[in-house]
Design a protein that fits this description.
The chain is built from 31 helices and ten strands. Helix 7 packs antiparallel against helix 8. The protein is elongated, with a radius of gyration of 48 Å. The protein starts with a helix and ends with a helix.
Length: 762
């Protein structure tokens, strides 16, 4: 068992090691997994029903071919209409009450009760009274608990005083008259039928009375009967008029409430049965469509009755679908998603392979598709009486894709996203059209973005896109003006919210996916950045060299379609490692004292090469993006520090190996790093040309490019021979402007001599 356990653990360990060996970022298996995950997640957002081939609403124009019924089917009422009819039936059902016989004689019961009260009060009358002539309250209170009606002490005391008929209390009625009056009122009331139900809650104003010995049920007006509340209200008024005392009135009401019995008892079971019976009698259909009958013709408007026929056709067709058809239907849904994903993958593979090859970037694109998909799904499941489909924030995806990648990739991806939205919304291609218009204009608004605040510039473009597309759809469907204004309002909300959401998500994506956008690069190009300020103060020659390189690289990148902002900013930071020992680099040696004269070639080479490592450490310390850090080692590649290599060879009789005099690399991997490598070498070498002319500059540029090409330093980047020609022309144009010939003005002495000669001649 122990050996078996060890073997099992070893297998798990080996499995983890194999997983770790997988290159997650560039693995094709991960790409397939991403595609499958996208399809599965979006599939579960798709509606569970089958749609007719065109979206239809009342007022819309049927754009498909004539729809002919393949079979006969009933026309079902609209669900809302049917539900309203059900509610009307429920309101109009006459609630069923059982009529019961009252047990015992209420007159006898009342007489017994009054005699019990009188007997107790007789016993209380012989109790010792206090100085004011009142019976002791504690002694009096102990008797009231013997009665079936529970009186409060003030009520009980009032009855006692009434029984004694104390004129000091201004009581205008005797106990016997009081008791007799209450008795007669109760007896008169008891002759009526009384409900054990709140009459105000009977909406139909009718009730059904069912007597035990009668088979026929009688339906009567609810106003002809009373409930307990009505009875007590009437008695209260009569008692108040007769007794003119609130306490005696309250006593009378308590007695009445105790002895008055309901005779009509609510029957819940029979009422529910009657309600269900009435609901079943409501017709579900209003006609029939026969087989081969035309349901709707092409270009006909969809009216209310036509919509009911279309809904009924869809309902019946669903019922007729078998298991095999259901499976085929699901296969069709998956197949449609597979097609969309393949189209997007083909575009990325052939047009933007750098994005296709990077799984992190694919996950980023997938996350945006899913975010929009979730908004689409919520717009379907939230049953709100508002056009919330206009709050599907497709423009957010278009803004982010444009900033993070470029406008071309954003356009193609947003097109796919709009189709995904239409699929999730069950073929709602009107929202697909509206979202597409708003999103495409958002792409154009963000093409040349220079700072983050310009994200909010897209508000106007999105608003224009949504407004005109909503108006176009409204003119086609001839919708109500109120509905149009509602949609325009929701479109405006989308235009306001999309830039705000995009602004927040951009920061999130930059941090999580370590994306370096043009906005980040523009922020890094500010000379107030701490690293650039330190470079300009400690190594001014290197700083000036970097600025000229930036101009060269930007022009070259623009000529071949590379990222010119990345190339320029890469130049600014490519030599930041020289900050640590600026005096060892010729461009920073203001005096004639060269520090390398005191060192051997090997040590000088180590110091020179060390600026690459120092630069990488500084870049990481200041958290520069990886795209910028790449320029630090790649702008030198594996080139030879030829000056000190030649010096070492000349000074030593032994064989000198060049590997210790080469930069560690790697070689340039992108067009931008390749351009910077050439710009660095050309800017430095052209400074040494005496009396530079365009021809001399062109020869030097051609020589440097040829040397780098022949050395194999450009083998791993995507620069072609055509690109190198364009780069040469761009470099030449900039350098000719920098090194142009100036007029040589004579000094003061020469000018005086020329003037004297002229005067002598004159």
């Amino acid at each position: 068992m122990k050996e078996s356990g060890k073997t099992f653990i070893d297998k798990i360990s080996d499995g983890f090691k194999r997983i770790q060996k997988i290159d997650f970022r560039y693995s094709n298996a991960i790409k397939l997994l991403i595609a499958v995950a996208a399809i599965v997640i979006i599939y579960f957002m798709l509606p569970r029903y089958k749609n007719i081939e065109s979206n239809y609403e009342v007022g819309a124009i049927w754009s498909s071919e004539d729809l002919i019924a393949p079979f006969s089917f009933p026309i079902y009422k609209d669900e809302k209409e049917y539900e309203q009819e059900k509610q009307d039936v429920i309101k109009n059902v006459a609630i069923v009450f059982d009529k019961v016989e009252k047990k015992g004689n209420i007159g006898d019961s009342l007489s017994i009760f009054i005699n019990e009260v009188r007997a107790i009060l007789d016993r209380a009358a012989v109790l010792e009274k206090n100085k004011e002539g009142f019976v002791n309250s504690e002694a009096l209170d102990q008797y009231k608990d013997e009665l079936p009606v529970k009186f409060s002490f003030p009520e009980w005391e009032k009855l006692y005083r009434l029984y004694e008929n104390d004129q000091g209390e201004n009581l205008n009625i005797s106990f016997n008259d009081y008791a007799e009056f209450i008795k007669q009122k109760i007896l008169n009331t008891d002759k009526n039928d009384i409900l054990n139900f709140d009459k105000s809650k009977i909406l139909s104003k009718k009730i059904t009375v069912k007597e035990e010995n009668k088979k026929v049920q009688e339906v009567i007006d609810v106003e002809t009967v009373y409930d307990k509340k009505d009875i007590l209200i009437n008695l209260k008024n009569e008692y108040q008029i007769r007794f003119q005392d609130s306490t005696l009135t309250a006593v009378g009401l308590e007695i009445s409430d105790k002895f008055i019995k309901e005779s009509l008892i609510f029957n819940n079971d029979l009422t529910n049965l009657e309600t269900l019976s009435r609901i079943e009698q409501i017709p579900r259909t209003i006609g029939i469509v026969k087989g081969n009958e035309r349901i709707i013709s092409k270009h006909d408007p969809v009216n209310r009755f036509t919509k009911m026929k279309l809904d009924s056709y869809k309902k019946v067709r669903l019922e007729k679908i078998g298991v095999q058809d259901m499976i085929l239907q699901q296969v069709g849904k998956i197949f449609s998603l597979v097609i969309l994903i393949i189209i997007l993958a083909l575009f990325l593979y052939y047009i933007r392979f750098d994005v296709y090859n990077d799984n992190y970037k694919l996950i980023l694109i997938l996350s945006l598709i899913l975010i929009v998909g979730v908004f689409s799904y919520l717009s379907m499941i939230l049953n709100l009486n508002a056009p919330i489909e206009l709050l599907i924030f497709v423009p957010v995806a278009s803004i982010l894709l444009t900033i993070i990648f470029d406008s071309r990739l954003a356009f193609y991806t947003v097109t796919i996203i709009c189709f995904v939205v239409a699929s999730i919304r069950g073929g709602d291609y009107s929202i697909c059209f509206i979202s597409f218009c708003g999103s495409v204009l958002a792409i154009f608004s963000e093409r040349d973005i220079k700072n983050r605040s310009q994200i909010f510039r897209s508000f106007f473009f999105i608003l224009i896109g949504y407004t005109f597309s909503i108006l176009a759809v409204n003119l086609i469907r001839i919708e109500e003006t109120q509905k149009l204004w509602m949609k325009l309002t929701f479109g405006g909300v989308n235009a306001i919210m999309s830039p705000l959401i995009a602004y927040g998500l951009l920061i999130f994506y930059e941090k999580v996916f370590k994306i370096t956008t043009d906005l980040t690069l523009l922020e890094l190009s500010d000379f107030n950045h701490p690293l650039l300020k330190e470079l300009s103060s400690k190594a001014p020659g290197t700083f000036h060299h970097s600025i000229i390189m930036g101009n060269l690289s930007e022009a070259a990148a623009e000529s071949i379609g590379a990222n010119q902002i990345l190339a320029r900013v890469g130049c600014y930071y490519h030599d930041i490692g020289k900050i640590s020992k600026p005096q060892f680099f010729i461009e920073n040696q203001l005096d004639q004292n060269n520090r390398h004269n005191e060192l051997n070639p090997s040590m000088s080479t180590k110091i020179i090469i060390a600026h690459v490592k120092d630069g990488i450490e500084m870049a990481k310390k200041y958290k520069l993006p990886d795209k910028i850090v790449e320029f630090i080692p790649m702008h030198h590649g594996t080139t030879l520090v030829s000056y000190f290599y030649d010096k070492a060879r000349n000074a030593s009789k032994e064989e000198i190996f060049d590997y210790s005099y080469r930069y560690p690399g790697p070689k340039p991997q992108t067009k931008e790093t390749g351009i910077v490598m050439l710009a660095d070498a050309i800017e430095a070498s052209t400074r040494t040309i005496e009396d530079p002319s365009p021809q001399k500059l062109e020869n030097k540029i051609r020589e440097v490019i040829r040397n780098r090409f022949m050395e194999g330093e450009l083998d791993e980047c995507d620069l072609t021979l055509k690109d190198l020609t364009k780069i040469k022309e761009s470099f030449l144009k900039i350098l000719v402007g920098i090194h142009h010939h100036r007029i040589k003005y004579p000094d003061k002495n020469q000018l005086a001599m020329i003037t004297d000669d002229k005067l002598k001649k004159d």
